[in-house]
Each structure stands twice: as structure tokens, then as C-alpha cells.
Amino acid sequence: MVGLLKKYGINHKVPTAYHPQTNGQAEVSNREIKRILEKVVKPHRKDWSSKLGDALWAYRTAYKTPIGISPFWLVYGNACHLPVEREHKMYWAVKECNIGFGVGVERKLQSVELEEHRLEAYENSRLYKEKMKAVHNQHIKRREFRARELVLLYNSRLTLMPGKLRSRWEGPYRVEKAEPYGVYHLRHPSSPNIFKVNGHRLKLYHGEKMKSTKEVEVFLLKDAPEGEEN
User: Would 119 be classed as within a structural domain?
Assistant: First the structure.
């Protein structure tokens, strides 16, 4: 397949449709549709397929805070109306379009206006994401570690079935070097290998006991003989 694409000069790019799990917007949309279905389906939850069309209509015509308008407005250039209102406006549009020959100019103006709405929605989405990112970063606790400190490493790839009560924190590891942007070089005390990790996966290890460098001599006190004073 690679040779065939190269022969005809085709640049094959893998979009998010190949991996819908990596598309954050699709995940958010599916979650909202799921919440709508949870409110309208019956207790046995077997009629969700018949309610899916209504749930999609409600989602597409609802106002979205990130973009400032509804998805229906992005596609058609105006808000969604009831069938009676739509039919009335359709008759009015047919009557107006049959009056003169300026239909093409009006269509161009409508296309330009729709494009302006889409650009405005894109800008609102960008500003909304920046605002949410700033709020999220304010609640993140900065974790700073120094060299020679012992830390625990969070293992996110630990399977759940074998050892369900097993802790996901491994270690301790020793911090060899700290770099900017929260990057740390770790090394296990029993291994010479050094690897890099993100600081958000670390926490300070408090289990090491203090080792005393001085030797303490212990003397046992024996009972003094009778008749002698201490």
C-alpha cells in the first residue's frame, strides 16, 4: 500500500476519524448525548434507539457556551424553528425570490454572513479553552523535588485484575537531576539506569528511616553492693 501511494504521489494522512478515541470533541459530544438519553428513556432502557433522533435534535439545536451559538446555526446560518414557523418562512422566501433576479447576490451575502458566524464561533471556542485552561492550571499543585531526594513513581499501566488492591505507586527512586518544566531524572538505588519522568507522576517518599552517623554506646547499670552509697 505504501508503494502504491508513493507511485501515484498520494500523501496519506491519518485523521481523527481513524482513531475516534483521540478526538476530544467527539468524546464530549457523545457524553452530552448520553446524558440526554438518560433523562428520556424508560426504566428498562431498551427504547434508546427510538429516542436517539430526538436526543440528537436537542443536542444540535442547543446553545453551546464554547462557540457561542448552536451547531444548527453553524450549518444553516440561523436558529432552529418549529415546523409551522419554518413552513411560513418558506412561503415567504419563495415569494420574495420570485420577485426579482437578485437571488444570487442575496445568496452570496448569506454565505459571507454564515462564514462570519463560523469564524466568530471558532474565536469564541479558542477564548473559552484558554479561560478553562487558566482555571485548571490554578488548581494544579506544583511539585518540586530536589536532587538526592527519594520519590514514588505512579504506574498508570498497572493492570487491574492481577493484584486488584496493589498500589500503583512504585519505588522509592532517587532524584538524580531536576530540569525545567517539571522533568526529573530518576534512578533506582539498586540499578545504575537513569530515566526521565514528568513531575506530575511523582510524590515525596517519607518511608526512609534516618541513619545516624555516630555510634552510641550502651552501658548497663548494675545494682550497687549493699552498704555503699551511690
Answer: yes
**Per-position DSSP letters for 164-225, written without gaps between them:** TT--SEEEEEEEEEEEGGGEEEEE-TT---EEEEEGGGEEE---PPPPPSS-----PPPPPP
Interval 30-62: pLDDT, tens? 888 888 888 888 888 888 888 888 888 888 888
pLDDT in tens, 150-195: 888 888 765 555 555 567 788 889 898 888 777 889 988 888 888 8
The pTM (predicted TM-score) of the whole model is 0.44
> DSSP character for 107?
H
DSSP at 157:
T
User: What is the total count of domains within the chain?
Assistant: 3
- Would you say 73 and 115 are in contact if contact means Cβ atoms under 8 Å apart? no
Helical packing angle, 48-61 and 24-40, nearest 10° = 120
Neighbouring-strand partners of residue 26: none
135 and 154 part of one domain: no
Helix, strand, coil abundance in the chain, percent, nearest 5: 45, 15, 45
Q: Would 213 be classed as within a structural domain?
A: no
What's the domain range around 172?
A: 150-158+166-204
